Amino acid sequence: MKILGIIGCGDLGKQIANYAINDNHYNDVVFFDDYSKETSVNGFLIRGTIESIDNSFANKEFDELIIAIGYKHLKTKKVLYEKFVNRIPFGKIIHSTCYLDPTAKIGHGCVIYPKSVLDANVIIKENTLINISCIIAHDTQVGAHCFLSPCIAMAGFVTIKEQCVIGINATIIDNITIGKEIQIGGGAVVINTISKKGVYVGNPAKFIRE
Ligand SMILES: CC(=O)SCCNC(=O)CCNC(=O)[C@H](O)C(C)(C)COP(=O)(O)OP(=O)(O)OC[C@H]1O[C@@H](n2cnc3c(N)ncnc32)[C@H](O)[C@@H]1OP(=O)(O)O
Fold it and tell me: Which parts of the sequence bind acetyl-CoA (predicted)?
């Protein structure tokens, strides 16, 4: 009996719970949430707030943790990961419909949604979420605490640093580096390395604001 603890019982938490159970990664899910007034969500117990996580783990109420906090709050997602990583094991869900080359490495706390493809030597660092149908080509690295929206295409030897948000259907050509805390808009085409923090949109992707 393996139980997943999920931080955040919103839409993202519900999706991850669905994959956890219906794709056979865990036998049960419990939630921790600071805002919900409910006692359960979709039939899964809300055990308490984030403050109750340590006690709950000590009482063996769950085995592994995953953080379901969305792209607007990646800093919080990082802070929570760092708060718990040295005392509670983080889980990982790679949906069974994904293709992963055997050389690809996925960090703890990651969730890879259905039909994504991760080719040879891809590295996904800890606590990162990859949405449906992303294509990540060989030798590309995605940093910790990132959020990749659906249908992103990344060519080979791309490096994405930590806490980046990549919008739906963005394309990133090969040998590009995207620095930390950068947001790429939906449908953008990134053809140059980007290091200044901020939001970039269009084809070719250009800076629009901090
Ligand atoms: C499963 C899921 O749902 S996962 C989530 C998927 N969602 C996404 O991928 C969302 C991606 N988000 C975007 O593309 C957003 O438009 C952002 C974050 C890039 C920008 O949002 P905002 O800061 O609110 O920008 P705003 O809407 O004010 O637009 C600013 C300017 O940039 C332009 N712009 C905004 N987004 C884009 C875009 N994706 N491509 C091209 N131009 C864009 C606007 O037309 C506007 O131009 P103007 O000043 O000439 O009128």
Answer: 168, 186
Whether 70 has a binding-site annotation, put simply, is yes
d(CA 86, CA 132): 30
List the strands of the sheet with 28-32, edge to edge: 40-41, 44-48, 28-32, 3-7, 64-67
Average pLDDT per run of 10 along the chain, which is 210 residues long? 98 98 98 97 98 98 98 98 98 98 98 98 98 98 98 98 98 98 98 98 98
Residues serving a catalytic function are 138
Q: What is the pTM of this model?
A: 0.97
